[in-house]
Amino acid sequence: xxxxxxxxxxxxxxxxxxxxxxxxxxxxxxxxxxxxxxxxxxxxxxxxxxxxxxxxxxxxxxxxxxxxxxxxxxxxxxxxxxxxxxxxxxxxxxxxxxxxxxxxxxxxxxxxxxxxxxxxxxxxxxxxxxxxxxxxxxxxxxxxxxxxxxxxxxxxxxxxxxxxxxxxxxxxxxxxxxxxxxxxxxxxxxxxxxxxxxxxxxxxxxxxxxxx
Length: 212
What we know:
Layout: E1 2-7, E2 10-16, H1 17-26, E3 34-37, E4 44-45, H2 46-49, H3 69-78, H4 82-98, H5 104-131, H6 140-168, H7 180-186, H8 188-204
Antiparallel strand pairs: 1-2, 1-3, 3-4
Helix pairs in contact: 3-4, 3-8, 4-5, 5-6, 7-8
């Protein structure tokens, strides 16, 4: 059975029973919140259905990448965006470690391949516009790869966003919320900002497992 949690006008879930206990232990859910079980018609205080957490061992997961987001931004600017492509793969590789069902890594790898294939043409365009280099005609193939890369990058961001929300509101219940607009606009940089905050919170809760 799954359970939905309500606090005022906000509704969260559904969660499995063990996830509700983890959220209670972490303080993300309080006994006075309301809960509705799957198939139930009414809402009840959490304390009625979950009076005391069972004695289960906490499951710990490796910390997400902890590079300060502003460092990632500077490196992305200095490298002309190349670092952003690489860091997307680093972030998605971490997710693949904590969830074998993750599909974001494969999408980001394809995006990186398309990016590398189009690099020579992109550098010639920059040289022409910035340094009066030789004129370059954008080929249909190059334009197609650029559009395909953009579409895949957007798809990868939202796949990764859904995987992060599922993980940090389920197996590792830290109450993560991610805005769809900022996801579209900043992608991996926006995720890294939240990773830094998550790692700080994990250290406070003594749930931190640094990657070796």
